[in-house]
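Cont'd.
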Amino acid sequence: MLFNSIHFIYFYTIVLLLYFLSPYRWRWAILLISSYYFYMSWNVNYVFLILFTTVVSYVSAIQIEKSYSNKEKKIYLIISIVASLGVLFFYKYFNFFGSFINSVLDITNQDQDVRIPYLKILLPVGISFYTFQTLSYSIDVYNGLIKTERHFGIYALYVSFFPQLVAGPIERSTRLLPQFKVKHKISLENFVIGFKWVILGYFMKLVIADRLALYVDSVYNNVYHNSGVTFVIATFLFAFQIFGDFAGYSSIAIGIARIMGFKLMTNFNRPYFASSISDFWHRWHISLSTWFRDYFYIPLGGSRVSVPRWYLNLFLTFLVSGLWHGANWTFIIWGGLHGLYIMTENFFKLKEKGKQKGIERVFRVIIIFILVDFAWIFFRANNVTEAFYIIKNIGDISSDIFVDYKVFFYGLIGLIILFINDYFIEKNKDSIILNSKLNSKVVLYFAFLVCVILSIGVFNGGQFIYFQF
Amino acid sequence: MKNSNIKYIILFISTILFVDVVDGNLLKRQFQKISSGTYGKINNSLRSNSELLILGSSRAMHHYNPNILSKNTELSCYNTGLGGYGLFYNYAILNEQVKIHSPKVVIIDLSPNVIVDDKSYTKLNMLLPYYKDYNSFQEIIRLDPKFSKLEVISNMYLYNSTLYNLFRSNFGKKVDDNNGFEPLNSKINEMNFAPFNFRNEQIDPNKLIYLKKIISICNLYNIKLIGVVSPTYLKYDSNNIIINRFKEIFYANNLEFYDYSDFFRLYKDPKYFKDQLHMNQSGAEIFSEDLSNKIMNGL
C-alpha cells in the first residue's frame, strides 16, 4: 500500500477514526493491527520476518536488563544483533556476496562444483529500516540509555509503526517508545502541522519526483541509446527526483504521524542548500546519518583517534552506509565517493567557518551540488558498467539530445515552486510554513499547493525509491 | 476551536473548491479547442461527421490514408486510430459518433495485439477529461481496475496534466490533422525477427465483449462494418487462433473481413515498413489503394 494510492487514503481515514474514537487503552492495539495490515498489503509472508526480529530483540533486551554480568549482557546483545542482521543479510545480501565469492572462485579456477547457489528471494520491503530500529533499541538498552519495554504490543508497535515502517525516518526508541504511552487528544495544532507536512510531501512526490522520473528512467534505463547532454540533464533531474521522492515520503510520514499526535524526527533539511559535504549529511537522510554516527562511527572511535584512523573511520562509515542502500557495487561506490569527499574536506579544512554570505555561499552550494550530483550517477545507474559508460560519454556534446517537453514544462513549474518554498524556509528557520500558526497567506499557499498537485501531479507514478532499500 | 482557526479552515476549503470550479470550467472550454496531439485527435474524432470512419490503434493511425480511401470510395473519411488505445476507445468513439451522426461505413483495424495487450487498461485514465461529458468514455474509464470514483470529484484532477497540451495547442505549431492519418517515414532496418505467435496469449474477454458491442452498434444503425488485419512485416502464425476468432465473429455476423497481414509477402521488401507492426507512408498508400478498391466493389 503506497502513500500515493487511493487504498492508503481509505486506510488512513479508517485508522484515524478508530484511533481517536477508541478508549486510550486500546489505541496501541489499533495502531499495531493497522501497522501489520499495512505491512501485509505488500506480502503477507514477510510479516513473519518482522515478527521474528521483534520477538528476538524484545526478549534479548529483557535478558540484557536482567543480566548482572557485562559478559552475559554482551552475549544477549550479540544474539539480538546477529539475529536482526542475519535476516537482513540473508534477504538483502546473500546473492550479492554469493556472486562475489563465485567470481573470486572463477578467477582462481576453483572446481566448478563449488559455487554458492543463487536464491530466488524477494527483498522484504522496509527490512533495512526496521532492522536498524531494533538494533538501536538493543544497543540503547545495553548502554543503559533506555529501560526495556515490557509491553510486547507497544514494543511491536515501535518496530512496525506504519507511518515510518517501510522508508523511515529511522526512529530512536528513546524518542518514539514514550510517545506510545501518551494519551494523544485530537489537537488542531497537530492537525495543522501534520496537514502542512502531508501536502508538502505529496507535492514533492507527485509533482516533482514522479514527473522527473519519466525522463530520468527513460535515459538511465537505456544508457546505450543516449549520451552527452542527455546524461547531464537526466543526472541533474535525478538529484531532484530522489530528493522529491524520499523527502516527500518522509514529509508524508511525519505529517500522518503528527495528525495522530506523534512527533517523528525531521529527515531532510533542504540538502541542496548545503555549503559543504558534512553540511549535506546534516541535511540529507538525517535519521540514517545520525544512526551511523551513533552506532557505527562513534563505536569505531570517531574522531578521538589518530588522524589516519579517523579518516579510515569516516571512509568505512560511508562505505557501509552505501552498502546499506543496496546490494550492488553502485551503492558501495556511491558511499565510497562520499567518504572520499568528506575525507578531502577534512584534510584541506574546507568545512565552512562561520556563516558565509553572498557569492561565496552561492559558489559553495553549487560546487557541493555538482559533487553530490556526480555521486548520484552511481546511485541511479543500473550497474557499474553503465555508470562508467555515462561518465565516459557525459562530455560528448555532439550527439542528439533527448527532449521531453512535457516533463520539462511540468518539472520546471514544480522545481520553481520547490525552490521558492525551500529558500523561504532556509531564510526563516522558524518558518510559518511548517509550524502550527495560520494566516491567510499560508492558508492560500497550501490551497495553491493542493491545486498544483491536482492539476499537474503524476498520480499513476511508481513506488517510492527508498522502498527497495 | 478558535473562531480564527475555523475561518482559516473555511478559507482553505473554499479556495480549493472555488479554483476547482473556475479552473475546471476554464480548462473544459479550452480543452475542447485543442486540435493537435492525442487530445486534438480525440476531439476531432468526436466531432467528425465523415461517411467512412476508421477505428483502431496505432496500426490504424499509420496505415489508412483517408485521402486515398475518400477519393476511391467517394465517401468522406476520417481516421480515428490512436496509438496505445484499442477496442475500448474504438467503442467509445463510435458510440458517441452515432449519437450525432451515423457513418455509412466503418473499418475496424484488428490485429492479435488489440485483444491481448493489457496496456490499454493503464492508459484509460488519459481519457479522464472526457469522463463527465461522454457516457461511453465514463463506461470504459471504469474498466480500469485502479479507477476510483474519488478521482472524478475534482475538475482539476479530471484535466490533470493537460496544461501542456493547452499551451502547445495555443502557442505551438499548428499540426495538419491529415484527417487523422499520421504517415511514418523511415524504413525498417532490422531483418531477423522471430515470427509473431500469439498462440499462448490469453484473449481478454472484456475486449471481446467490446468488439461485439461495436458490431451491435453497427447493426443497430445500419452501418456497414468491415474488419481488416492490415499488413505486418512478418507473417503471423498460420494457425493464429486470434485472427481465426476474429474471422469467426465477423462471418457469423455476415460481415466482411479482410486479412492483409500477408499482403507484402510477395514483395519481400522491407521498404514498406517502419517496424515489425507498422507500415511507412509508401506501404500505407499501396495498402489504402488496394483496400479502397475492394470496398468500392462491395458498396
